[in-house]
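In pairs, describe these two lines:
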Amino acid sequence: MFGTIVWVGVGLALVWFIWKVGFGMLRSMTSSLPPPPPSGEMRRINVRYRCSVCGMELKLTLAPDQDPPPPKHCLEEMQFVAPVD
């Protein structure tokens, strides 16, 4: 008898948890996107980075500041190559 009460309680808690998570996910999908950043906040830059592990290259053309921190790839910081002409 006690085991049945425990299973019913666990089942009700699980149903409540799935209900809350499901409605939270639906609510997050229906919320509007944040407004775009004000004009002039992103700066045009021309910088290239290379991953020292796999060799992938990345060209960065927009950044919030003139000297952005290097991105990460293969769990390592990418190395600065040279400004693009």
Remarks:
- Residues 23 and 29 are 10 Å apart (CA to CA).
- The chain is about 35% helix and 30% strand.
- Residues 1-31 form one domain.
